[in-house]
Structure formats: C-alpha cells, structure tokens
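User: Reviewer 2 asked us to show a designed sequence for the structure in our supplementary figure. I'm pasting the structure tokens here. Could you produce the per-position amino acids so we can include them in the response letter?
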C-alpha cells in the first residue's frame, strides 16, 4: 500500500559530502514492496523540498522504512518527515554495527550510541551483546525510561523475567505516562502466571491509552485465565466497540460465551467472524460445536463438514464431525460409515498414536455393528492410555464385547471447540 498521494514521488541523489534527498513530482511507476526493518544512515543527509531543507539526517540515525524500491528506500525520520534515500547511503539494521563502532570510538561517553548499536545486535539475534550494550549505555548515564524499557525486552527474550520486571518497573517509575513498559511488564506477568498483576498493568495502560483496543483484549485474556469470565466479556465488548473488524476479538468473546454456556450468543459471535472471514475453519468449527450443544445436529454437521473442506487436516473439526456422526440422536445425521471414514482421517493425522482418536475410531466401528474391529482399536488404545484413561478404555472394551454401541456417558468430557485469542 502506498502511503503517498497518487502523484507525489520522491527521488534522491548523493554528493561526496552528504546525500541530498529531494521531493519531486513525477509518475508513480516505480515498483514498491512492503515496509521492511529500519535502516541506518551511513552519512549526513539533507531532506529537502525544492530549495527548502525539511530535515537533517545525521550519520547513525535510525530511519523507519515505509517502502523498499529497486535502488532506494522511502523512509520516515524521527521527526516525522518522509523522503527517499539511496540504498548506498544507508545500511540495513543487521549490518549497521560498524557505523556505531565508528561513532562510539569518536564519542565513547555518548550512551545513546550504545543503545542504537544494541538494536543492530538484536537484529542479528545476538541478545547477549545487545544486553551488554544497554548495560553500558545505562552505566554511561543514559538512564531515560525507554532505556530501561528496552533492556527489559532483552531480559524478557532471555527469560530473565525477574530482571525484566525490574527494568520495566524502573521505566514506569521514570516515565509514568508511558504505557509501553506497563504493557511489556504485563506480558511478562502473563508468561509467569501472575495474571492479577497483569490485569493491574493493563488497567493502568488503559488509563493512559483508553482508545487502544488491544489493551482491552489483552486484559480480557488475563481475566479469562483468572476465571473472571463476565469481566472478560466486558473487556471484549469494549475492544469490539473500538475495533469492530478485529476477528480475534470476536473469536475470543465467542469462546468465553461458550464457556459461560451462552451458546446462542457464542453462535452470533462466531457467525460474525465468518462474515468477516468466510473461510475461517476455526470459527466454523466453533459455531458447529455450539449448535451441537443446543441439539441442532444438522447445523452442527454442516459446519463441521465445511470446516474440514476448508482445512482437511484440521484435527479438531475431524474429531467433532466423527463423534457427531457416531453418536447423533438424529438418525438423519448419524452415519456410521462416514463416521469410520472421518475417524480414520483423524487417526492418520495423529499417526494412530493418540488415545482419544483410537477411542473415536473404535466407537465409530461400534456404531456400525463392527464390534470385533471396535474391540481391536480400543485394545490398541490401551497401549497409549494414561493411568486415568485405563478404566474408560476397559469399560468400552467390555461394552463392545457385549455387542453394544458406544455410550457417551462413559466419557468424562466431550471434545471442545477451539479458539485462538490474540496474545501479545
């Protein structure tokens, strides 16, 4: 997507002393690619409009890339000006460490330069060296809040969670109006199971950025993990109010409504997802399961079938479809032959190494009156069963030996729909 007006294009040329970027009017015929990682200025550059200098780019400045072209980058400077620079005047972030080496050699007391070089180390995956540079920057007196927040990211990446929390907390102390370290600290609290603390951090971040739907979604996820489902739904409600095209938010709310037993409401949310994304196999499967919970077996089967058509290796949809074909109360829905075929497809995906899938295959054969085969697959499942699953398998074997079909009451739980709320 081109962020510029239809007839506004930027060209650039360089001199030996510095690069001069000039904004001109010309046809928009150059091929553009999607935005890439930031680039670093190799030299001083002047961004101009006609004879007017709009901005000065210093050597070592980090530039946001808006578009990549054959011989240039469309960039945005720290001050917000947009222009173009030739490829030869900048370096990719992962290749820019030598630029900062030179600058640090000239100004070894400038802590900011160490933070910039840390970004280069981060870009190549050298987390430890990036962390060392941030340590050095803070040691040199570069102790702004974002320095601690950035170092916290490196600690979190290295799973030094206690140190990450310390840095984020220091960043919050130094700049209490910055929501970013609060959100990052909340993410660490989520990773370590401290959901109450995460809720507190997201709440403070929301106070600073009340129009950010992602914050409401993330807090809703934390509330869900605390079992506070009604509060989680309220959070999703607000997120949807702010961004009603976000599929993951509708999915998340739909799943919680399912957990609350509000199946009709869950169906509405999953149906909305399907309107936004007609080929979402997950949403279609989830809606199908909620139809099944309401006893609407025909509607459920139609959704499971469609989900499998869209994603033939979607194991959960195959499992749900096979169980419904095996156990449906509606004789127009129950179909042992199709149940066997669908259960076999599920077993092939799990390579016949999953207790539940083998139990499903046995049940499908049992529903077809093929009890010897059902016994064989259920006995096979015993080889994979955990201790708590053994009694169920043994009861089912006894049932098939009596030439009786599968009894759902023997299972402790039913297959459940899948939802993937966005996590940050």
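Assistant: Here is a per-position design you can include in the supplement:
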């Amino acid at each position: 997507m081109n962020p510029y007006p239809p007839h506004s294009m930027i060209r650039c040329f360089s001199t030996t002393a510095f690069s001069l970027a000039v904004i001109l009017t010309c046809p928009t015929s150059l091929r553009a690619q999607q935005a890439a990682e930031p680039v670093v200025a190799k030299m001083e550059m002047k961004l101009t409009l006609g004879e007017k200098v709009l901005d000065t780019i210093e050597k070592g400045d980090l530039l946001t890339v808006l578009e990549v072209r054959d011989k240039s980058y469309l960039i945005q400077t720290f001050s917000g000006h947009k222009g173009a620079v030739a490829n030869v005047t900048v370096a990719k972030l992962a290749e820019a460490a030598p630029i900062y080496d030179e600058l640090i050699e000239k100004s070894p007391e400038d802590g900011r330069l160490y933070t910039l070089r840390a970004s280069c180390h981060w870009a190549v995956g050298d987390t430890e060296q990036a962390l060392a540079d941030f340590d050095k920057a803070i040691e040199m007196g570069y102790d702004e809040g974002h320095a601690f927040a950035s170092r916290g990211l490196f600690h979190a990446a290295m799973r030094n969670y206690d140190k990450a929390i310390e840095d984020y907390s220091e960043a919050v102390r130094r700049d209490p109006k910055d929501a970013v370290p609060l959100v990052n600290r909340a993410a660490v609290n989520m990773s370590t199971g401290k959901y109450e603390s995460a809720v507190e951090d997201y709440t403070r971040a929301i106070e600073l950025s009340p129009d950010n739907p992602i914050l409401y979604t993330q807090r809703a996820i934390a509330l869900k993990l605390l079992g506070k489902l009604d509060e989680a739904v309220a959070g999703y409600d607000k997120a949807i109010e702010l961004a009603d095209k976000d599929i993951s938010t509708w999915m998340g709310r739909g799943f919680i409504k399912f957990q609350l037993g509000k199946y009709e409401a869950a169906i509405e949310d999953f149906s909305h997802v399907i309107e936004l994304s007609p080929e979402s196999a997950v949403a279609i499967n989830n809606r199908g399961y909620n139809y099944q919970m309401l006893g609407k077996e025909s509607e459920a089967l139609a959704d499971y079938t469609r989900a499998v058509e869209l994603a033939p290796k979607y194991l959960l949809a195959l499992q749900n479809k096979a169980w419904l074909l095996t156990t449906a109360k509606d004789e127009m829905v129950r179909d042992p032959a199709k149940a066997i075929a669908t259960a076999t497809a599920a077993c092939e995906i799990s390579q016949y190494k999953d207790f539940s899938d083998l139990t499903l295959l046995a049940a499908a054969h049992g529903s077809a009156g093929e009890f010897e085969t059902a016994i064989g697959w259920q006995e096979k499942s015993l080889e994979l069963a955990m201790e708590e699953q053994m009694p169920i398998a043994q009861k089912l074997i006894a049932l098939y030996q009596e030439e009786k079909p599968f009894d759902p009451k023997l299972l402790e739980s039913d297959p459940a729909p899948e939802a993937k709320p966005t996590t940050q």
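For the response letter, you might also mention the following. Residues 1-35, 413-424 have pLDDT under 50 and may be disordered. The radius of gyration is 29 Å.
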